[in-house]
Specification:
The chain is mainly β and 141 residues long. It has 1 helix and 9 strands. The strands form 2 sheets. It has a 6-stranded antiparallel beta sheet. The protein has a 3-stranded antiparallel beta sheet with strand order 5-4-7, with no helix packed on it.
Length: 141
């Protein structure tokens, strides 16, 4: 195993890797970038600008774990995109578990960028994905 403090834009998977994900997420300035992509698991880092959001999405075959590393947010979840009937405020350290096929969105409710780490099983993005801004994200969810 090796340790590399991930501050660049490399995706360190599928090789063994150790990281301080909270610290790496707080330093991330990209809307989304993959940190580690393996065969069955992927971790990304996200920086959601003030008043920004991840955007309403659904991963049909992928479970997701979203952890708030810095800032305050609001999660909205539902079985259809028109009925997001679950909502809860989030703060540093909170983790949201999203089952495959469920619609969800996280909105930045704070005065600083919302720093997030997100783990997908199986991977949801191409290895090495970097979206500097939300507008760079052209993937369909």
């Amino acid at each position: 195993m090796f340790y590399y403090h991930a501050t660049g834009t490399a995706d360190y998977g599928p090789y063994p890797f150790v990281a301080n994900i909270g610290e790496d997420a707080r330093k991330n300035e990209n809307f989304r970038r993959t940190l580690w992509t393996g065969r069955y698991l992927q971790t990304t880092l996200m920086s959601i600008p003030v008043r920004g959001e991840i955007g309403l999405e659904r991963h049909p075959d992928t479970d997701q774990m979203i952890r708030i590393e810095e800032g305050r947010g609001l999660v909205r979840i539902g079985n259809t995109k028109d009925e997001l009937d679950f909502q809860q405020h989030l703060c540093k350290g909170d983790t949201v578990f999203v089952p495959a096929g469920v619609w969800h969105n996280i909105i930045n409710m704070g005065m600083v960028p919302l720093q997030v780490s997100s783990t997908y099983a199986p991977p949801a993005h191409l290895r090495g994905t970097v979206h500097r801004t939300k507008e760079d994200d052209t993937e369909e969810y």
